[in-house]
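Morning F.,

Quick status update on the modeling queue. The single chain you submitted on Monday has been processed. Sequence for confirmation:
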Amino acid sequence: KRMALVVARNCSRSLTESMNYSRYRGLAKRPSCPTCIIHSKRYLLSEDIIRLREFQQRKAAVAYQIYGTKDQYLKTVNEKVSRNELILKEDLKNLLHLCQTPDDMEIAKRVIYRYHTENKNVAYGEFKFGPLFVRLCYELGLEELAAALIKDQPLRGFFSDSTSFNITMDMLFVKGQYNSALEIFLEMKNQGVKLSKDTYILVTAVCYKLNTPECQRICSALLDEMQTKGDALPRRAYLFAVALALKQGEITKALSVYSRIINTDGKICHNVYILLMAMSEKLEDLMEVLETSVETNTSQFVKKPEICKDVLSVVEKKLEARPLLQKKFEAVYNNLNAAGQIAAVTLDDLLCRTPYSKKHSYLLPPQRKLSRRTYKPLHSTLMTE
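C-alpha cells below.
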C-alpha cells in the first residue's frame, strides 16, 4: 500500500505540472502590446478534447485504489497474458491508468493485443479504450506508438472513435510530423470512422503545412464532400483551406472558399481577407480596408483590428508598381504602427494557435450550516422531531 501511495504521489506531481503546463503551454514571449499574446506551440485541440487533466486525476485515484504496488499489478496482468488467461475489462482499464514509463507501455501494448483478440467480435459497450490509451501516449510523449497501433490492422476496431485519431493527429502535428498525421487521417477514412469538426480542422491544418498539390486535392475533396452533404465546415478549417490555396497560387479557389465563411469577424479572418485581396490584385479595395482599420472616430471601447506584419509585407510588395497607392500605404502603415495595430505574430501563428477551453470552473458558495435566526445547526429541528 505504501508503494501505491508513492505511485499516486507521482501522479499528483505530474498532474500539478501538467496543470501549470496546460495553463501556460505554448505562450509566446510577451510582446509590447498585451493583446498580441499568442500560443506558438501549435496545439490545435483545446483541453476540452485532450482532457489530460481529467485523465491524470483518474490515474491518481486508481493508484490509491489498487492493492499492492504498480509493478506487482503489471506483473500479474502480464502473467495472465503468458498463461493465456482471460483479460477482463477492469484489468485493462486499471493497467492503462497505472502506466508511467515506456517499459510499462510495452506491457500495456501486449495486453491490448490480447484483449482485442478476445473481444473484437463482442461489443465493448459504452466504454472505449482508444481515447484512454491515446491520452496516456499524449502524457508520456509517445505519439509514434499511438500512430503505430492505430494503423496496425490486427487492432482494427479497437480505435473506433474520432477522438483517438484526432488526439494522435494533434500529437504528430505538434512534433512537426505532418506526413504521419496525414497518414492517420487516411487510415481514419479507410476504417470508416466518422469525421468530427476537429478532424476537419486538423486535416486542413496538416495539408496547409505540407503545402503540396496532393494536399490541395484532399482539401478540395473534403470541401466538395461537405458542400454536397449540405454541411458547413468549422471556420478555422475554411481559413486553413484558403491559406493553402493561396500558397498553391490558386487565387480563384481561395476566393471561392472564403466566400463560404458565414461569420468573417475576428483577427484571423481580417488578416486572411487582406492577404486574399493583395494576392488577387484588388489593390484599391485593399487600401479602403486598410484605411478603415485606422479610423480615429471609433469609440475607445471598440477593439481595433490588428494586422500581422508579414501580411503587410505582402501588401507592400504588391504595391511596388503603384507609386500613388504605395504612398497611401506608407501613411496607413505609420498610423497602424502608432496605434499599436501591427501584430508581432505572423498569420501562421494566428492560424495554428491553441483554441481556448470552453469549460469554466465556478466556485460554489459554502453551504450554510447554521440558522441565521437561532444560530443553531439547521438539522437540529429535524433530529428532535
